[in-house]
Write a structure and sequence with these properties.
Blueprint: E1 2-6, H1 17-27, E2 35-41, E3 56-63, H2 70-81, E4 85-90, H3 99-105, H4 108-114, E5 119-123, H5 141-158, E6 163-166, H6 169-179, E7 184-186, E8 206-214, H7 221-233, E9 238-246, H8 253-260, E10 267-271, H9 278-283, E11 287-289, H10 300-307, E12 311-315, H11 318-327, E13 332-334, H12 339-351, H13 353-368, H14 372-401, H15 403-410
Parallel strand pairs: 1-2, 1-4, 2-3, 4-5, 5-6, 6-7, 8-9, 8-11, 9-10, 11-12, 12-13
Helix pairs in contact: 1-14, 7-12, 10-13
Length: 412
């Protein structure tokens, strides 16, 4: 099979780029796959060449973020590369944060299907669970109604894919109940990589780290203040590590935080973390904190924390808590926006070594239970089914269209 993967891909910094990278790195070693064509966004940097391990990989940067002709470009590329199947790794703003361009991009999976190339869409979030105010999109009730209305229409369009995959049981239940659709598949998020377990070093400086794109529902002010409380209570050398960048909707956020908290000692702002530097960031951390006020889907950072055997401090909110319980992860909880509660949770993990180690081992075991190599096998089952069905349909169409068979069908 020749599989086309439509997604941002490193060194592109587009959302879900890391998921696409790890998915492809596991899919390429499957014997059923002869070639992977990555249809990704155009960037200033050049994309890496194939390392010649696994199947052939072709990278075609054929579309631009916020471009109105993205669907045309992608469909043309699918036809040019003669892909057997198109796999879309997306969320609602994958193709643009401008409304028209973003919406047009989301029509590409159904266009792919219309042009005879089966489409499987992995949708990482659904509008029904998005808190628009916390996510920094809008706080207007009228605009929320409008976004929900548009989101419903776009979801209906995405459901015209041959298969729509989501990562959480809650999403499956919502989509089936609301849209009465039967082509929805539950496929877990999976763990990017499973390095050998290394016990967290507890001597010397302790690093309290958070990782992501900040400024909307992920904000770091309360985490900084919580660590300051822990410092005042205990004679511990604690470094605050803020790993990541601004959310595209809130440019300049981290620079403002840096200026506001310039009086606080030992804060490191790493900026964008390159793929090869991710292991170091996690391994050097003592505790990983999720300073979220809401969530928009399954957390890749949680799976990464688990794969490196880290204990986590988490807000007690819907989707994230459900994911924790369903996939076997454990963490120390705090109520969203409760600085004192977050401080208590961080302090507990920094001071209670046996408890922290228990959480580290539990999270590592949870991560090991769903490696990305297994997730790739789940997708392969759907890929093979869709490709085989498509071949059967094409064969039937040829038979009907041939003059000889046409005559027999009409009784000539």
């Amino acid at each position: 099979m020749k599989i086309a993967v439509i997604s941002p891909y490193p060194p592109s910094k587009g959302t879900l780029n890391e998921y696409a990278f790890h998915f492809v790195q596991n899919l390429k070693f499957k014997s059923e796959v002869t070639e992977i064509v990555i249809l990704t966004d155009q960037i200033v940097e050049s994309y890496p060449e194939d390392d010649n391990t696994g199947c052939k990989i072709t990278i075609d940067p054929c579309w631009k973020f916020n471009s109105l002709n993205t669907p045309i470009k992608i469909v043309k590329a699918l036809k040019k590369h003669k892909a057997d199947l198109a796999m879309f790794n997306i969320q609602f703003l994958s193709f643009g944060d401008k409304k028209v361009a973003g919406a047009l991009g989301l029509m590409t999976p159904v266009l792919s299907r219309m042009f005879g190339i089966p489409s499987l869409t992995l949708l990482h979030n659904i509008t029904e669970t998005v808190d628009y105010e916390s996510a920094g999109i809008t706080n207007s009730k009228m605009m929320m109604f409008l976004y929900n209305f548009i989101g419903t229409i776009l979801t209906q369009i995405l459901l015209l894919s041959n298969v729509l995959a989501v990562t959480m049981p809650k999403y499956v239940n919502i989509l089936k109940k609301k849209y009465k659709s039967r082509n929805i598949a539950l496929i877990p998020h999976g763990t990017f990589e499973i390095p050998e377990y290394v016990e967290t070093q507890v001597s010397g400086k302790k690093k309290v780290m958070t990782f992501g794109k900040f400024g909307t529902y992920k904000k770091v002010e309360e985490m900084i203040e919580a660590v300051e409380i822990v410092r005042d209570r205990n004679d511990m050398d604690i470094e605050i590590v803020i790993a990541g960048t601004d959310n595209p909707n809130v440019k300049g956020y981290l620079e403002n935080v840096r200026n506001t908290y310039s009086h606080v000692n030992d804060i490191t702002f790493t900026g964008y973390v390159e793929e090869e530097d991710v292991p170091t960031i996690f391994r050097e951390s003592t505790v990983v904190v999720f300073p979220y006020t809401s969530t928009t889907g399954s957390s890749g950072v949680l799976h990464q924390a688990g794969s490196y055997g880290k204990s986590v401090v988490l807000p007690q909110i819907g989707d994230l808590k459900e994911l924790i319980e369903e996939e076997g992860y454990r963490g120390e909880y705090f109520k969203p926006s409760d600085v004192m509660g977050m401080a208590d949770a961080i302090e507990k993990l920094l001071t209670q070594e046996d408890y922290r180690k228990e959480l580290e081992e539990t999270n590592y075991a949870a991560a090991c239970s769903l490696p990305m190599s297994d997730i790739a096998d789940w997708y392969l089952l759907h890929f093979e089914h869709l490709v085989n069905n498509n071949k059967e349909i094409k064969e039937m169409t040829k038979e009907v269209e041939s003059p000889k068979n046409y005559k027999s069908l009409v009784g000539v």
